Structures are given as C-alpha cells and as structure tokens.
Amino acid sequence: MKLPKLPAPPLPNALQPRPQRPGEGEKRGPVDHAKEAGISAVDWVDERTSLSGGLRWLMFRKVPKGTNWFYTLGSATMFAFLSQAVTGVFLAMYYRPDAAGGAYESIRYVTNEVFLGEFVRGMHKWGSTVMVILVFLHMARVFFFGAYKYPRELNWIIGAVLLILTMVMSFTGYLLPFDQRSYWATIVGVNINGTGPMVGPFLSDFLRGGAEFGATTLSRFYAIHMLLLPGAIAAMIGAHLYLVAKLGTTAPPWMKSDGDDRLTEDRV
Ligand code: HEM
C-alpha cells in the first residue's frame, strides 16, 4: 500500500527567509556585496556562539550621570597594555636572551638594521612609562571618587595586584637590553629587594637565579617579562573588567543620590 506523503515540518523562525529590506533587490556593487559578506560572517559565528549577548552585556551598560573623562583612564591603561603586547611580540622576533653579548647585539640590530625597528622599540620603551603613569592616574581617580568602597573592594584588590604586576613588568624589562645602564640598575634593584624583611634574601636569590648575577638571571627575567607577566596581567584585567561590568561604575561623589532612576542614563 502506498503511504500518503507527510507535509514538510515548518522551518524554525531563525531559518525563515527574512522580509526584504528597503532598497533590497536593486542593482548592487562589489562594496555592497563585501558589506553583506561581513555581516553574514558575523551572523554565522553569532548563531553558533551567542557571543553578541556577552558583548552587549559588557559594552552597553547604564553609566551614572556625571561620568566624565576621568573614567576613561582605566581603558587608557588597558590600551597601553595592549600596545605593549603587540610591540613586544615584534621585539621578541629579534631578541636573544644571551648574556654573552647576544642580547645587546640583538637590541642593537633591532634599533639600527630592522625596518621600523627603532620605532617599535621606542613605542615599547615609552609605552611602558605611559602605562605606569596611567595606572597611577586611574588608581587616583578610583581613590578620590571613593570607588574602592563596598561593593568594589575586591576590584580594588585586583587593581593593586595589577599595579604590582605592572611595576614588575617594568623592572624585568629594564634588564633585557643588557647594556651597562640596565645591568647595574638591575643589580641595585635586586639588592634593594634583598633588604626586605624575612622574604628579602629569598626574593633576591630567586630573581638572580642563584647567588650570582649572570646568564640565568637574564633568561629568568626574560621568561617572567614575556611569558608569566603578560598572561597574569591579561587574566587579571579579565577579572577586573568582569567586576566593572557586573557592579557598574561609581557615580562621582558630587552627584546627589535622589532616587536610583535619576542617577543613571543610557550611554554606550
Ligand atoms: C593594568 C592596570 C589596570 C587596568 C587595565 C584597569 C582597567 C579598568 C577599567 C577599564 C575600569 C572601568 C572604569 C574606569 O576606567 O575607571 C576600571 C575600574 C576600576 N579599577 Fe582598574 N584598572 C587597572 C588598575 C587598577 C588599579 C591599580 C586599581 C586600584 C588599586 C584599580 C581599581 C579599580 C576599581 C576599584 C574600579 C571600579 C571603579 C568604579 O566602580 O568606578 N584598577 N579599571
């Protein structure tokens, strides 16, 4: 017996052909096609990951009335870090952590021979100072606006760890050119660490990689500078931003709190 043909199940809403947009169907050029391809690619990823929900949660938040330029200092610090990461990758393509002259020579090579090498090295060197200044300015903003108080104490603590990691980043990076200035300055720095109570001597032994300052010290500083710290800072920034998005930012202290609704407004 021949069975009747069953009707096809309806398409789920997400797969229904969408209604035509105004102007759609008109003659379109390669630029329109390229735009459309970009949108389709983003849609394709989003349909499988729902990443846009997370991004919307992070980026499209309500911010307090009175939010001003001082609130950009945290993001400025983050961009300084990203710039350090990008320029650092290019420097690492040429750098050799070799205490017997190789480190100094590789830096000389980057500065004098590599295309844009001096520029990238300059960006990394000045960028480190910029990042240290920005992190202190951001911390001052948080302090003077009272943003460290309940419920943001944990974010202040994470921030303090970020501050220490940023300082250690500068300290370990300073040795890498391995010229007279970086060599002697780092000896002074390691000796200062050694004067700390109880842990001091262990800390300076750890930094030197033994009792003597030498080849192991350089590879140790290099590994800490380009592997350990960037990873730790990136993870800490992730936690820091999660808490910022979850708790929201603090209104400036001069804003009067007369009802929650009047204190907030939609901003991107
Ligand atoms: C690598 C270093 C750091 C980065 C990239 C960073 C990034 C950020 C960003 C993007 C924000 C959002 C609001 C704003 O910019 O003010 C923020 C907020 C905050 N940061 Fe940092 N930060 C860093 C270091 C610090 C330090 C050193 C502290 C304090 C010890 C700190 C404590 C806080 C606190 C408490 C908030 C919440 C502010 C509020 O609710 O208004 N951060 N941070």
Annotation keywords:
single chain, 268 residues, mainly alpha, Cytochrome Bc1 Complex, Chain C, two-stranded antiparallel ribbon, 64% helix, binds protoporphyrin IX containing FE
How would you describe this structure to a colleague?
- The protein is mainly α.
- The protein has a domain at 69-174 and 218-247: Cytochrome Bc1 Complex, Chain C, CATH 1.20.810.
- Helices cover 64% and strands 2% of the residues.
- It is built from ten helices and two strands; from the N terminus they run H-H-E-H-H-H-H-H-H-H-H-E.
- The protein has helices spanning 30-49, 51-59, 73-92, 102-112, 117-144, 153-175, 180-194, 200-208, 215-247, 260-263; strands at residues 62-64, 264-266.
- A two-stranded antiparallel ribbon has the order 1-2.
- Helix 6 crosses helix 7 (180-194).
- The longest helix has 33 residues, at 215-247.
- The mean pLDDT is 91.
- Bound molecules: protoporphyrin IX containing FE (HEM).
- The site of protoporphyrin IX containing FE has 27 residues, from helix 3, helix 5, helix 6 and helix 9.
What series of H and E elements makes up the topology? HHEHHHHHHHHE
Shape assignment: extended
Spans where pLDDT lies below 50 across 5 or more residues? none
Number of helices: 10
Ends: how far apart? 65 Å
Alpha-carbon Rg, integer: 27 Å
**Pairing-aware structural class of the strands and helices?**
mainly alpha
Estimate the strand proportion.
under 5%
CATH class category name of the domain at 69-174 and 218-247: Mainly Alpha
CATH superfamily of the domain at 69-174 and 218-247: Cytochrome Bc1 Complex, Chain C
Mean pLDDT: 91
- State the CATH architecture of the domain at 69-174 and 218-247: Up-down Bundle
Biggest sheet record: 2 strands, antiparallel
Find the CATH topology of the domain at 69-174 and 218-247: Cytochrome Bc1 Complex, Chain C
Helix fraction by DSSP (H/I, runs of at least 4): 55-70%
Strand order of the largest sheet: 1-2
Q: Which molecules are bound in this entry?
A: protoporphyrin IX containing FE
Find the count of extended strands (DSSP E, 2+ residues): 2
